[in-house]
Amino acid sequence: MIIYTVLFAFIPFIRSQLTTQELEEENAQEIANRTYVEEQTELQRTILSKYNKRVRPVLNISEQLDVAVHIYIMHVSVNQLEQTITLNGHIYMTWKDEYAVWEPSEHNGVRITMVKQWEIWTPELRITNSVSGVGQFFEISRRSHVIIHSNGNAWSRVEIYPTFSIKIGCNFDYSAYPFDTQICALGIYATNRMSEVQLSVYYNMQPTVLLGWGNQSIKKHISDWMIDSVTMNVSYFSGGNYKAEKPTDAEELDVSWSILYTWLTLHRNASYFTWTLLIPTLISYMFVICSFLLPAPDSAIYILLANLLFLGVFLEDLTIMIPPAIGKLPEIGSAFILNSQIVHLEEKKVINKE
């Protein structure tokens, strides 16, 4: 009985000890979290209080700022009637910032912080061949976050991943339809001259194409098109001319711009071309050949008229399927014109015999 009395007496004490321990753990976690948040807030306040986002982040104003760029393509949409390609994805950019600096030891060892894109300097990018015009402002997102990595009081490494949705104009050639291959380029340049900002390819890496996730990460097929390759290079514009060699003279740098080109090579994936186009064409030719072998002209006329009707219906459907003939006439168009002429000549020949 005495033992039970002692146990009942200690139960409230034990419960109070457990409750106190839980509260201490919760308070410790809350204090730790609050300390980190407060440390980040104080760090960002320290950085931005002396920061001018309208000034290039270099201490020496004559020094050029290199911005390394890598393109992630997440979706491609081809409009062959408008001769345009719409690209969606991310642009990774990184550069040195000599103003957004801090000493990590003075901020509890914090080396990385994140600020809003509009709070610090970022390169002003434009698209050379956008269908919306060079001055389009909203094709590249301006609502991203910027990651700043501290390297001490000297400089920091800045990284940003803005999304983009860009519709570019292309020069398509359909003369080899339906086995045509199209090449189109996305041109990105900074509004600053090369004496201030230069664009470069991030570690000479080619653009990343990621049209799917998991098992579909190797996907390269979009609608009727297959992506063969995506490459990137830098060209230099000066005095109305494009150059592959990078200018080095100070005066030339002051009147030059670096343009980052992303080249897309696509070919048409005509999976059902044999069944939908080639076989009907061969059948039509067989009708024409068979009409020569018939002994009676009346039967030949009926076959040729039926073939002509067949060609008319088929050509009507074909004109809806094929892209516009820009430049050289597609080979398939030449084949159907030749076929129609042969049918017409054969009809005249049979009629003259009668």
Description:
With 354 residues, the protein is an alpha+beta fold. The chain folds into 3 domains: 1-49; 65-268, Neurotransmitter-gated ion-channel ligand-binding domain (Acetylcholine Binding Protein, Chain: A, Distorted Sandwich), CATH 2.70.170.10; 273-353, no CATH class. The chain has helices spanning 2-49, 250-253, 273-293, 297-321, 331-353; strands at residues 65-79, 84-97, 112-116, 125-127, 145-150, 156-160, 163-169, 181-190, 197-201, 208-209, 221-222, 225-238, 241-243, 256-268. Strands 1, 2, 3, 5, 6, 7, 9 and 10 form an 8-stranded mixed beta sheet that branches. Strands 4, 8, 11, 12, 13 and 14 form a 6-stranded antiparallel beta sheet that branches. The protein is elongated. Mean pLDDT is 83; it is low at 3-14. It holds the Pfam family Neur_chan_LBD. One of its GO terms (cellular component) is membrane.
